[in-house]
């Protein structure tokens, strides 16, 4: 697809992956092609920077294994911020092993990446089977999400009649309730445990302990498990006229509300090039990445690369590029590096000259005195470079 095509046009192209379509729409509405690389070491730092710059970015990139206190609550809180501020989460895992191993690394272990990160990435060193394995793992994660299991536990003393006898008529009501639950997409399973000493987690019910044995019949602990199937669409394709081309004359919050949350699907980026000096990824290697991506367009969103990989008229892959940094004011044009092999390019060079789609910025923002202000500086420069690429006249 032509480099001058807008993000919105590309989002509506045939055969575009659902997550790629959503991301391109999100970028167009928020007017940002900025991904923050949040390479921090604690959950507090991660959540703080996500909160601080979330309105400015389209993607937040993580390295969860560098966060010393990472846990499920970290992932949950990060997801909550992402939903509220409208950005996707990209775990920069760089898978590079045989199929069964990457499947376990992706869905299991301590981090369970597939549960909370919409995007991850991989090397193709093991061959195309790595993509197949990650796709199968992603598919199983989506299937698991679409079937929710919820358990409610209650422990109430049995009701009594005026003459002190137990009222056992509730059994018939329970049967009726169970019958009503069938056929509506929900199944209910009720179990009765006669003694609270045999109940949940082996614990004792305080109400049972406080009741004299002579005055009380064993209470009943009821465990009710509800299994529901989600019917929400995981492949949204909003209408082409979701928003006008003139992005400066629209109500962005309203458009974001219309766009809605990201679909619960997963996407993969293939690492075709790196920004480090002396990397060993040859042109032939990069071409193999492209061929593998073309065979997995439903799952592969695009590439980590230093230039657009789209070469055929039907290619519509998203290129995300690390190694982006703006010189300090007054030092424009100076070549920048970090002294450890990292080479930096400006947003204009990457977006306008190299036709990349998303700039990935890390320390330039995370180490800034004012993270929000610096993120806005990168967002503005990246967006202006994109507008120049597609032919929008600058004011």
How does this structure look, described?
One of its GO terms (biological process) is 'de novo' UMP biosynthetic process. Residues 164-178 have a biased composition (Acidic residues). Residues 33-378 form the Orotidine 5'-phosphate decarboxylase domain. One of its GO terms (molecular function) is orotidine-5'-phosphate decarboxylase activity. This protein is α/β, with parallel strands linked by helices. It has 2 domains: 7-146 and 232-390, Alpha-Beta Barrel (TIM Barrel), CATH 3.20.20.70; 148-229, no CATH class. Helices cover 35% and strands 17% of the residues. The strands form 2 sheets. It has an 8-stranded parallel β-barrel, surrounded by 8 helices. A 3-stranded antiparallel sheet has the order 5-7-6. The two termini are 27 Å apart. The relative contact order is 0.15. Residues 157-164, 167-175, 177-219, 231-241 and 244-248 have low confidence and may be disordered.
CATH architecture of the largest domain: Alpha-Beta Barrel
Structural class of the helix and strand makeup? Answer: alpha/beta
What proportion of the residues form beta strands (DSSP E)?
15-25%
Distance between the termini: 27 Å
How is the largest sheet built, in terms of strand order? Answer: 1-2-3-4-8-9-10-11
SSE order: HHEHEHEHHEHEHEHEHEHEEHEHH
Spatial shape? globular
Any idea how many domains? 2
Sheet of most strands: 8 strands, parallel, barrel
